[in-house]
Design goal:
This protein is an alpha/beta fold. It folds into 2 domains: 168 residues, FAD/NAD(P)-binding domain (3-Layer(bba) Sandwich); 150 residues, D-Amino Acid Oxidase, Chain A, domain 2. The protein is 28% helix and 26% strand. The chain has 8 helices and 19 strands. Strands 5-6-4-14-15-16-13-17 form an 8-stranded mixed beta sheet. A hairpin with a 5-residue loop joins β18 and β19. α1 runs parallel beside α8. The termini are far apart. The protein binds flavin-adenine dinucleotide. The site of flavin-adenine dinucleotide has 41 residues, from α1, β2, β13, β16 and β17.
């Protein structure tokens, strides 16, 4: 039997749906309002990385590890695999300077208890694990076997099915106004008004506007990103591969590659910092192809069949925002890498709301820290 305060989760992306489901599993009275269709936001187009090796900030790294560990349990309860698997992750490095930076990065990471780090591999060792890595530009690579990947469209579809099956959601309910009524809230939408004791703002790129409706400042800046997919290909890579940005090559974005269960290659990513105008652009498509074929020349003739563009929002320290606003019955959940974080975000936010405390959510993630930060620029800090 559900009980306790009534909770409205605003925004039905990977983060809002995971939080709503975890609250439901903990017996809370929860309803999720989504302005469009569940899973129709940026979560559908994420690259699918559920990886720890790229996280330098110790809190973010610990949170990524928590999410990797919790994902199988969440998916068991949802009743879907969504392509989740321990695929391992590679970061490929083209210069000595990048290798040195990576050693310092690892030294920082190893301060996090329980973290097993990553290995440095020579080109021959890289090729043995992943034969597609044979570019003469690659000096060295790092590999973490415990990193995972997931198929983002399958993830959001699975979460949406679970949310609908549990009867938790109202779609087409764009939040237009938020009023304080007594100790709780009233939320106005085109499909009706909703009363709640507690609000969770999980509206992604729309979170800043939602907080403003409640009279709260949430200083986030947009980043729009583009990623491409190919038609299904014969097996090419089994792991996640990122080629680190090489500052010696102008206009070369970091390059990332993953092959989905259906054989499609997901190739990215061009980011536009400070821009909320997500659009698939010819120039970005060309930049992605040029950058990829430098390291994977055999992909030069593989066509793209779909471009994806979306917007996320970040504060100036590049860390996610998870926590309560002061003592208000108002919580914020805006991820940095929401696909990777979705499992941990759902569990920890539900614990925080139900228990009033969650040690896995450090002050470094709190919305209250944002007032002490410089204005956001849309740059990813970590
Ligand atoms: C190109 C690209 C590649 C990426 N790759 C990865 C990756 O490999 N791994 C990773 O972890 N992350 C990746 N990300 C980031 C990741 O996609 C996002 O962090 C994550 O999906 C955000 O989830 P969310 O639920 O917060 O937002 P969303 O999925 O955008 O959900 C927010 C929801 O809120 C709704 N909403 C907004 N305003 C309102 C309103 N006023 N009323 C009602 N509803 C509202 C929206 O309709 C939307 O459905 C990538 C992002 C991009 C752009």
């Amino acid at each position: 039997m559900s009980g306790g305060p009534s909770i409205l989760v605003l925004g039905g992306g990977a983060i809002g749906m995971s939080i709503a489901l975890h609250l439901h599993w903990r017996g809370s009275r929860v309803c999720l309002l989504e302005g469009g269709a569940l899973g129709g936001g940026v979560s559908r187009l994420g690259g699918g990385w559920v990886a720890a090796q790229g996280r330098r900030n110790p809190y973010q790294l610990a949170f990524a590890l928590e999410s990797i560990a919790h994902y199988p349990h969440m998916l068991d309860r949802v009743g879907a695999r969504a392509g989740f698997r321990q695929s391992g992750s590679f970061l490929l490095l083209e210069t000595e300077a990048l290798v040195e930076q990576r050693r310092a990065f690892l030294a920082d990471q190893m301060t996090v208890p329980g973290y097993d780090g990553f290995e440095f591999l020579s080109p021959a060792e890289l090729r043995k694990l992943e034969p597609a890595i044979r570019s003469r530009h690659i000096l060295c690579g790092t590999y973490r076997a415990g990193d995972c990947s997931i198929d983002p469209p399958a993830l959001v579809d699975a979460l949406a099915t679970a949310v609908r099956r549990a009867g938790l959601s109202v779609e087409g309910a764009t939040v237009e106004a938020i009023r304080r009524v007594g100790a709780g809230w009233e939320v106005a939408t085109p499909v009706g008004d909703f009363a709640a004791d507690v609000i969770v703002n999980a509206a992604g790129h729309g979170a800043r506007a939602i907080s403003a409706l409640a009279g709260m400042d949430l200083p986030l800046a947009p980043i729009s990103g583009q990623i491409m997919t190919t038609p299904p290909q014969a097996p090419y890579v089994r792991s996640l591969i990122v080629v680190a940005h090489n500052p010696e090559i102008p206009d070369c974005p970091p390059r990332d590659l993953r092959q989905g269960a259906d054989g499609r290659l997901w190739v990215g990513t061009v980011n536009h910092h400070g821009s909320g105008e997500a659009a698939v652009r010819r120039a970005d498509t060309e930049a992605i192809r040029k950058a990829m074929t430098r390291v994977f020349p055999e992909l030069a003739d593989v066509p793209f069949d779909r471009g994806w563009a979306g917007t996320r929002a970040l504060p100036s320290d590049g860390l996610p925002v998870y926590g309560q606003v002061g003592d208000e019955p108002f919580y914020v959940a805006v991820p940095m890498s929401g696909i990777a974080e979705a499992a941990a975000a759902g569990r920890t936010m539900a614990d925080l709301i139900v228990d009033g405390d969650c040690p896995a959510l450090p002050p470094a993630f709190s919305p209250d820290r944002l007032k002490d930060l410089p204005p956001p620029t849309g740059r990813m800090g970590h």
